[in-house]
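FYI - complex with flavin-adenine dinucleotide, inputs then prediction.
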Amino acid sequence: EGIWRLSNLAVSVQNDPGMDFLGVSDGLLQEIAKTIKFPVASMLPAEAFTVIRKSFDARKMLKEPRFVYTVDMDASQLISLEPRTQDFISDLEPRVGFVEYRPQERVSGDLLSIIRNSKSVDKQRSSAKGGYSICASSVDTNKNPTIRKLKIAVVGGGPSGLFATLVLAELGADVTLIERGQSVERRGRDIGALMVRRILESESNFCFGEGGAGTWSDGKLVTRIGRNSDSVLAVMKTLVHFGAPKNILIDGKPHLGTDRLIPLLRNFRQHLQRLGVSIKFGTRVDDLMIENGHVVGIKVSDSNERLQHGGQKLGYDAVLLAVGHSARDIYQMLLSHNFHLVPKDFAVGLRIEHPQELINSIQYSGLAAEVHCGRGKVPVADYKIASYVNGEDVDTSSNLEPKIRSCYSFCMCPGGQVVLTSTDPSELCINGMSFSRRASKWANAALVVNVSTKDFEALNFHGPLAGVEFQREFERRAAIMGGGNFVVPAQTVTDFLENKLSVKYLPPSSYRLGVVAANLHELFPAQITDALQYSIPMFDQELPGFISNKALLHGVETRTSSPVQIPRNSETYESISFKGLYPIGEGAGYAGGIVSAAVDGVHAGFAVAKNFDLFHNDI
Ligand code: FAD
């Protein structure tokens, strides 16, 4: 009896119905039979098996691409088959890729059901992020948490702010969610105006607005903080609760796409409003109210109040700052109050775009025909590449210290488009987005090189916001190179490697506001350009055809992660500078990406609830 987990079950493309099929096919049953050494595959009942994870593996080292499954087997369903099967089951022994498993140890629901069942919040530290691990079953108090109307402001409606709001509102706090940008409906219109009429709304754009920076995105839900951790599972299940397709729980590389994110966020908002959360869109936090070392509230303004140089003061018991890393005004404001801010390493570079067909054929060879614009058997091809560059490997004319740098692809968007993520018209930076089918004819990814304080200092940027100034410097240079009007400077990868302007030919780009030939090899300090020029030929060895005159580099990618950390207490999540303020998510330097930001929001929500004794003392 019991549940057995079978991993690494490989099914060939011919024997599999395709990536969208998440059930148990005959091909998979045959593979299961081989793994458990069961003689007749057709006797195995499909109901006994549940697909837990399915990925497509097209690595070059394999003889042929294949689907790879993790499956749970409910042995009790096999026992009822017939006597001989019973003997077989009783002989099962754990071995590699085949272990007995206790699913009851895992989180079983989304955050809403976890909190509503009022089970417990495990006080143990989470191994993944130093937060609270969520455990639905360890302590069953069978009591609802005591509700005390604690007044909380959550500043920022990105993943970290939304999930923190959800936890606190479900636990009964009186939460106000304050977002400088607009609701997804109005934000969609503002983004439309940007793409068509070149009007950049400084408060409602690709970075600011409901859902945060990741709304008009590829919606990749991959994370480096442990796909199977309880917190990640709870976040993923909550996304399903609000309308994400169930396959994000199974797909090895889940993604949503902008078209799915928008209705999901609307459902999320309606749920928060039903819980009594007051949501203020178009409202920007300009300052903090601080008394005796305590943050006791915020100063906010909407566009009308800003015109009249006015604003409002609002008092709160606690303020969660979930503003993302494009809110540079907030870093400045914190510095003006002498908050302790620490510059953080991040990465900068260029975004490369290839025809998606080219990437499909590099990755899949003959199977590329199976992609069918995201409707075929195999997923639209992506890639992930990295190289390490020793300072001595590259011939650098700059006087920066030679050091080992990593150069890697970041935020790859198969079947996507390059978009403008500037929040100020004098600066130009880009990123990528896609729709759920990933059906566009382009594949884009950032190629970035890590940078640190030494690089900031070499350009004479010092102090806690040196990294922000470093980003801004290259965003301004890119805007000037583009010639204004959000036109992006571009260069073919072949010309970039040869340090020459792409005068003869500039391939088409998915970027809607136009590209212009520019000397991108002159944009960054020599060490960054050298690292890119050294790494791109390495990437071409891994993905032959990557260097192509159809591949276009776009400038500039600067906002890969936060350039600043706002230190906080690792238990209470409270700022180490002032009580009552909780810096969370990517902008605080504690997350990178949609899922990890959401998880940080969950942990912060529980930490604040615990600090204010929202649970009572019995957990
Ligand atoms: P954010 O999402 O940045 O949210 C912060 C919010 O705070 C914003 O809505 C902002 O308007 C608001 N705010 C800021 N200042 C104030 C203020 N003063 N007052 C009130 N509100 C304020 N990650 C992935 O994992 N997968 C992807 O596919 C992916 N694609 C991306 C594509 C694009 C185009 C971009 C820009 C980012 C992408 N990311 C992706 C990164 C991801 O969006 C972020 O890591 C994530 O959104 C960070 O969440 P957050 O809650 O910490 O901050």
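The longest helix spans residues 594-611. Residues 29 and 42 are 8 Å apart (CA to CA).
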